[in-house]
Write a structure and sequence with these properties.
Low-confidence stretches: 6-12, 183-187, 190-195, 233-269
Number of strands: 10
CATH topology of the largest domain: N-terminal domain of TfIIb
Oligomer: single chain
Order of helices and strands: EEEEEEEEHHEEHHHH
Strand order of the largest sheet: 1-2-8-5-4-3
Strand content: 15-25%
Distance between the termini: 96 Å
Structural class: alpha+beta
Radius of gyration: 32 Å
């Protein structure tokens, strides 16, 4: 469902074009409008945009597709913000895991409302309304009708493994090629089941799930799936040829201004062919150069 979100009628910068599932707007509860909120990204630990709907009963992630020099025509107006927002359902346990892991270092059972707190992202407490399945990643203990939780690495690994296995089933059902033969970032249909390799699907699904968990959890999950880590070919290169990933522009590895200097040694000329060698041996004494035939004629002076 494509919708246009607008907070103030006068500000164009507060309008977006959104593609969202019907579940993002609860028709049965018109008084509970969906709310965009900033929460801590479980993979990057930075701020990301999410959407809560149905009175905080459902969580959706928000991703933007953006191109340069792009805008929208909406009615008789032009929307300068050309981003296209995709709103898709998301399991809130992904966002709760970092808080449970941090509190679990003490090894004690704690009330979950005391665990999920964040001064930088106070809206994180709203996730508890849409995450009733904490038993999938934590141990539970009830004392006097009050529940206490403690993070469990074993339960988390089993839960993430099920996520990977379900993703593999979807990939196979959709006939998506995920092996080494894929040469582009777009999905490519496979021709037959013989092209399917279980390890390729597991690695691909692991990569998709890793976008929602920390790097440490991703490595632990890879080990839990009994998949060896792949060594990147670039790791074998000398340190001078390695490039670091950063948000800043990467500088050129070479100084290209050296080609402008007089002392630059150019490559030797290519070897002459047999015909060129024969022509070089010809006696050119008395021969005119080719350019002499194109020189302007000298007019004879009148006597």
């Amino acid at each position: 469902m494509a919708t246009k979100k607008k907070r103030t009628p006068k500000a164009q910068s507060d309008s977006w074009v959104v593609i969202a599932a019907e579940a993002a707007i609860d028709a049965q509860k018109p008084d509970t409008d969906p709310v965009f909120t900033r929460l801590r990204n479980p993979a990057t630990d930075a701020a990301s945009l999410y959407l809560l709907s149905g009175g905080d009963a459902r969580l959706f992630e928000v991703k933007a597709f953006e191109e340069d020099f792009h805008s929208w025509f909406i009615g008789q107006t032009v929307q300068r913000d050309g981003r296209l927002l995709f709103v898709t359902p998301m399991d809130p346990l992904y966002l709760l895991l970092p808080y449970l892991i941090k509190a679990g270092k003490d090894g004690t059972f704690q009330p979950v409302d005391q665990v999920v707190t964040d001064e930088e992202f106070p809206s994180c407490s709203r996730l508890l309304k849409c995450a009733p399945s904490l038993h999938n990643v934590a141990e539970e203990k009830e004392v006097e009708k009050q529940k206490f939780h403690r993070y469990s690495q074993e339960k988390t690994m089993n839960w993430l493994k099920k996520k990977v296995e379900r993703t593999v089933l979807v990939l196979k059902k959709s006939n998506i090629s995920v092996g080494e033969g894929v040469k582009s970032t777009t999905f490519v249909k496979v021709k037959s089941e013989s092209d399917w390799h279980e390890e390729d699907f597991l690695r691909y699904a692991h990569g998709l799930i890793s976008e929602y968990i920390s790097e440490d959890l991703s490595k632990a999950l890879l080990k839990h799936l009994q998949l060896p880590e792949l060594t990147s070919p670039k790791e074998a290169e000398p340190p001078s040829k390695k490039r670091k990933l950063s948000d800043t522009p990467v500088e050129a590895g070479e100084d290209y201004t050296k080609f402008n200097s007089a002392g630059f040694v150019r490559k030797p000329p290519k070897k002459m062919t047999a015909a060129q060698k024969s022509l070089a041996k010809v006696d050119k004494t008395g021969m005119k150069t080719m350019s002499s035939f194109f020189c302007p004629k000298v007019k004879a002076e009148k006597k």
